[in-house]
Write a structure and sequence with these properties.
- It is a single chain.
- This protein has 279 residues and is α/β, with parallel strands linked by helices.
- It has 9 helices and 5 strands.
- The protein has a 5-stranded mixed sheet with strand order 1-2-4-3-5.
- Helix 4 packs antiparallel against helix 5.
- The protein is globular, with a radius of gyration of 27 Å.
Length: 279
Amino acid sequence: MLKKRKGYYAIFGILSVVVLLLSGCYDPRGPVPEGPKPPVPRDYSQEEVDEVVSVELQLIESPLPLDWGAPPECNWIQFLRFRPSDGSTLGRDGLVDVDNTDAMLLMMPGILEGANGFEYIGRQLVYQAKLRGKNIEVWAVDRRNNRFEDLTGMQAAEREARRILSEGGTPEEAARAVKEICLGYYYGGMEIDGKRFRGVDWYLDPKNHRFLSEFGLKMDTEDMFKIIMTMVPDRQVRKQKVFVGGHSLGGIHTSMFAGWDLDGDPKTTDDAGYNNCAG
């Protein structure tokens, strides 16, 4: 028993010393970081990127089963297409000129994102590739449920802000306009282009969108297949030039895509995800 007590006393003594040493490091002002350092200058400007890169919203029709009761806008797959603005990657019918395109990257967003999650990196990738003599495209995907969003107010606010700035207005004036339009449309009953917001309560009521229970991994993965098969019909080209990736949940989804059996028949592998992309 005496030995145990001596052991406890020893441990208590060691902890006391540690606490005393740590208290000497305490600064009531909190952590004091080093002084700010100047940012590393870029060797290009955003204006230069915008001159080289075009961004388009692409739609692919893909009707859902009628008994799901989904609204008509959800019968389309949409993605942002980042490509060289000189048209070097454009083929017939707006698809990809696979002979002049070195790589196509399909990117899936994270759980709380949409295609806009790749707004900057998509532009930068196409631009940096072009500087190196390569032509690539980036396809930033919206999951099908993104089609259910009402962006009317946000798009109207963006248009108005651009107009104000183009006419010499100040950023503060543009910000006020954005605030007024967004609050007016989404909370004040404002009508824009003949449309009114359905209301937050409508969106929060499950009975208004039961079809979302059908929006799952299977549909989203098959949409990925639909995009790459539509844009690049030749599977051999897909195996050489199409890359699939994503951020956060999109990264996990990428691994699901790689092992996905599109026709459900394990005896056929040409339709497997890993056989429809280069990486």
